[in-house]
Design goal:
single chain; alpha/beta; Rossmann fold; 2 domains; six-stranded parallel sheet; five-stranded parallel sheet; 34% helix; globular; SLFN_3-like_DNA/RNA_helicase; DUF2075 domain-containing protein
Length: 412
C-alpha cells in the first residue's frame, strides 16, 4: 500500500517542493527576517483551496525556522517560534513528527488557546508563529474552550513579532470560527502584511473540469458532470448508501485510507454514546467517536466501521472517500439549486448564534454557507476517487441521471 499517511506527507524529509513552493518558503523567510525587529507585528497570509499544498509548505517552513534558530550566524538565531493548529486531529500529526527532526520539539506545537493563555501568563512574546488551518481560529469568545478574548488571530498578533498563517474561507465550518475576507482584512490592516494565493491542486487526481464541478456543488449549483469526470479519477454516484459503503470497504482492503463520511444532519450528541446513520439499502453505521489515541482517526483501521465528519477528516487525505449528503441538503425544484434546510440541523454547536451578527438574514446566509462549506471539505478528501450518495430523493435522482448520461457517453 502507498505510504501517504498524514505523518509521511508532512515530514520534512519526505517533501519534494515544487519551484513555486520553494520560492514561497524563501519569500516568507525573507519577510520574517525583515520584520522580526519591527515596531509592529507583521503577518503573511497564504490563501488556497483544499489540496493546494498549504500544510506541506508550512511544515517545511517551520522546519527551516527551527534549524535557523540554532545556527549562531543566522539572522533568526535564538528565536522562539511556535506552530499552532486549532484541530486536535491535525495537531496529533505535527506532534508525532516532533523529535524526528533536529530542533523540532513537541512543545513547539500547540492549540491557539493554549498558546495565548501560556504567553499571557508568562508575560512574553513569541518571535515567529506559524498557524495551519487559520480559518479554524475562533473569531468570537468561547468560554467552553477557555478563550475569553474577541478574536484569536488578533490576540496572537499581540503576542508575536511575525505571524504566518493559511486561510481557506471555503473551509469555515462553524459560526464561532467564522471568517471571510472582510473580517480578515479588518484584523490585518493595521500591520505590515503580505498575501500569497496558491492555486495548483496537489491532492486530487481529478481534472480541472471536475474540480470546477465540485466547487459549483459547494456553492449550491448543480452543473452537468464534465465529460472527463472519470479521467484518471474514480468518480461514482450511488443510488443507495449501502452499496457505497461496500465499495469503500473494498477500496480500503485494496489500498487503505478509504472511508465513508457524511455532512451534518443526522443525530449526533457528544454524550459518549453511539449515534447511528440509517440510510437506503440497509445502511446502518455509527458516527465517528471522539478519538483519544495519538493516531489520526482516518488512519485507525477500525474506523472503516464508522462514518467520518469534518471533525475527524478536515485537513486529511484519503485515497477514496464515500460522501453521504445528509437530509439538510436538498434540490429545490423551482431553480434546480442545492439548498440547505436549516430546520433539519442536528449539530447545534456548529451553528450557534453570534452576538456580533444581529441581522437574521445575514446570520441565516452565514449558516447556509457553513453547511455548504462542509460539502466542499468532505468532497475533496479523496486522492484517487469520490463516491457520492444523496439522502434527498430529488437530488439523488438528478445526480444519478447525470452520472448515467456520463457513463453512456463514455461507453457508446
Amino acid at each position: 500500500m502507498p505510504n501517504n499517511t498524514a505523518t509521511a506527507k508532512l515530514a520534512p524529509n519526505q517533501h519534494h517542493l515544487t519551484p513555486e513552493q520553494q520560492d514561497l518558503v524563501d519569500r516568507i523567510l525573507t519577510f520574517t527576517t525583515h520584520h522580526l525587529s519591527g515596531e509592529k507585528p507583521a503577518i503573511f497570509t497564504i490563501n488556497g483551496d483544499c489540496g493546494t499544498g498549504k500544510s506541506v509548505i508550512l511544515s517545511q517552513l517551520f522546519y527551516n525556522l527551527q534549524q535557523a534558530a540554532h545556527e549562531p550566524q543566522n539572522d533568526l538565531a535564538g528565536t522562539q517560534n511556535y506552530f499552532l493548529v486549532n484541530h486536535p486531529e491535525v495537531l496529533k500529526v505535527y506532534q508525532e513528527l516532533a523529535g524526528s527532526e533536529p530542533h523540532v520539539l513537541k512543545k513547539d506545537f500547540l492549540r491557539p488557546t493554549s498558546f495565548i493563555n501560556q504567553l499571557h501568563k508568562q508575560h512574553r512574546r513569541a518571535d515567529v508563529v506559524v498557524i495551519d488551518e487559520a480559518h479554524l481560529l475562533l473569531s468570537q469568545p468561547d468560554h467552553y474552550n477557555n478563550f475569553y478574548g474577541t478574536n484569536q488571530l488578533a490576540e496572537i498578533l499581540k503576542l508575536s513579532r511575525v505571524v504566518i498563517c493559511v486561510f481557506d474561507f471555503h473551509q469555515v465550518v462553524q459560526t464561532k470560527n467564522y471568517w471571510d475576507e472582510a473580517r480578515l482584512n479588518q484584523i490585518v490592516a493595521p500591520y505590515p502584511h503580505e498575501t500569497y494565493h496558491l492555486t495548483h491542486q496537489f491532492r486530487m487526481h481529478a481534472t480541472p473540469a471536475l474540480i470546477n464541478w465540485m466547487d459549483a456543488v459547494s456553492q449550491g449549483e448543480l452543473l452537468p458532470l464534465p465529460a472527463d469526470a472519470r479521467t484518471d479519477y474514480d468518480f461514482r454516484v450511488y443510488g443507495d448508501a449501502e452499496s457505497l459503503r461496500k465499495a469503500i470497504v473494498a477500496r480500503n482492503r485494496q489500498v487503505g485510507l478509504s472511508r465513508v463520511v457524511a455532512t451534518t444532519g443526522y443525530p449526533s450528541t457528544l454524550d459518549g454514546g453511539q449515534h447511528y446513520i440509517n440510510e437506503t439499502g440497509g445502511f446502518h453505521m455509527p458516527w465517528d467517536q471522539y478519538n483519544y489515541t495519538k493516531t489520526p482517526w482516518s488512519e485507525i483501521p477500525e474506523t472503516i466501521n464508522e462514518v467520518g465528519s469534518i471533525y475527524t477528516c478536515q485537513g486529511f487525505d484519503l485515497n477514496y472517500v464515500g460522501l453521504i449528503l445528509s437530509p439538510l441538503l436538498y434540490l429545490d425544484p423551482t431553480d434546480q439549486r442545492i439548498k440547505v434546510d436549516l430546520s433539519k440541523q442536528t449539530n447545534r454547536e456548529m451553528l450557534k448564534r453570534r452576538a456580533d451578527v444581529t441581522d437574521p438574514a445575514v446570520f441565516n446566509h452565514m449558516k447556509q454557507q457553513i453547511i455548504l462549506n462542509t460539502v466542499n471539505v468532505l468532497l475533496k478528501r479523496g486522492i484517487r476517487g469520490v463516491y457520492l450518495y444523496a439522502h434527498d430523493p430529488a437530488l439523488r435522482s438528478a445526480l444519478l441521471r447525470d452520472y448515467q448520461r456520463l457513463l453512456q457517453s463514455s461507453n457508446p
